[in-house]
Amino acid sequence: MIMKGAIILLMIFFLVPMVNAVCITPTEGMEINDNTIFCFGAYNLENGIKIANSSVILDCNSSVLVGNGIGYGILLKNVDNARIQNCNISNFEVGIYLDNSANNLLNNNYLTKNKFGIALFNSFNNDIDDNVLLDNIRESTINLQSSLIQEEQSEVKEEIAEAESASPKEIMLEVIKLKKPFLGEDEILREVNSILDKYFNFTRENLEITREIAYNETDRSTQIKLNLKPKKTLLNVSVYEKIPKCVSNYVNEILFITAGYEVINDEPLILWAFAKVDKEEEISYKVSKRIDEECKNLLTAFGIATGFEEFEEKTEEKRKSNYLVIALVIILFALILNYLYKKQHKKFKK
After folding, report:
1. Closest CA to 120 of 165, 64, 91, 138
2. pTM
3. Which CATH superfamily is domain 168-309 in?
4. At residue 211, does pLDDT exceed 60?
5. What are the strands of the beta sheet with 31-32, ordered from one edge?
6. How far, in Å, CA of 29 to CA of 26, rounded?
7. ∠ Cα 128 130 136 (to 5°)
8. Which of 108, 135, 277, 328 is most buried, most CB within 10 Å of its CB?
9. Whether the Cβ atoms of residue 84 and residue 105 lie closer than 8 Å to each other
C-alpha cells in the first residue's frame, strides 16, 4: 500500500510540470496574460507579442520570432516583475521594447538584425544584462524618456535616419576607400571631389532616376525599382544604390532581378554599370519584408556618367532638316532659272 502511494505521488510529481508546461504556438499580435511557453520553431510575425499582465513568465523555448522590419518583437507596456527568456528575435524595429515598465527580467535572449535590440522608455530597475545583441543598428540598449509609444517610435526613427542616411559624397568616399585602399585620406577626398565636380551635376541634369516600391501581399515581399530616363546618350554610367539595414541587413537577403550588379560592401552598397544608356532602363530587386515610409526615405540612389553623345534621333532630325534646306535651295534656283528663261524668251519674240 505504501509502495502504491509512493508511485502515485511520483506520477503526480512528474505529470504536473508536464501539464503546466504545455507549449503554445505564437501568433501575430498575441497578448500574453499568463505564464507561457512557446512551442519550439521559427515564426514569421508581422505584428509582435504583447505582455499584457505583470508578474508573468514568457519562455520562448529557443524559438525564433522574425518580423518584417517594423514594430516590436515583444512589448512590455505598464508591466512589472515579468520575465522574458530564451527568445531569438530578429528583423523588428525594436526587438524587446519596454514602456513604463519596471523590475522586469530579460534573460538569455538573442536579439539580432533589428534596428534596436532592446529599447526602454521611462522604464527603470530592469535586469537586462544577460542577453546577446548582435548585428543590430544599435548594439547597446537604448534609453529614451517618453510615455507614449507613438512619440517613442518617432524618436527611434529619427535616430535610425541619422545613423543610416548617406549623401552621395559619403557614398563615394566609401567606394574609393574600398576600391583604392592604397590611397591616403587626403588623396581619397581629392579624388572624390574631382569625380563629383566633373560628373555628378552633369549626370543629375541628364539622367532622371525615379523609384517605385510595391509590396506583394501573397509572398510578403517588396520589389524596389529604379527607372533611368536619360536626356542624352550617356557613356560609362555607374548607378549606386545605398540600401539601409531596415530594408536588408545583408546583401544575401536581397533577390537581384537586374543582373550586372557589383556588391561594393555588405552594408549593402550596390553598383550597376552600363557602357551606354541611350534609352530608358530599369533596375529592380526584392526583399522578403514590408518597408515602412521612413525606411523608404533612407534609400539613396544616384548616377555618375563620364561622357555623353547627342541622341541619334536628334542627329537624324538635323540631317533631314539639312536635306530640306538643300531641296528648297534647289527649288528656288530652278524658279530663278525658269524666270530668267521666260524673260529671255520674251525678248527674242520682240
Report:
1. 138
2. 0.55
3. Mu homology domain, subdomain B (2.60.40.1170)
4. yes
5. 31-32, 49-51, 72-77, 94-99, 116-121, 142-144
6. 9
7. 75
8. 277
9. yes
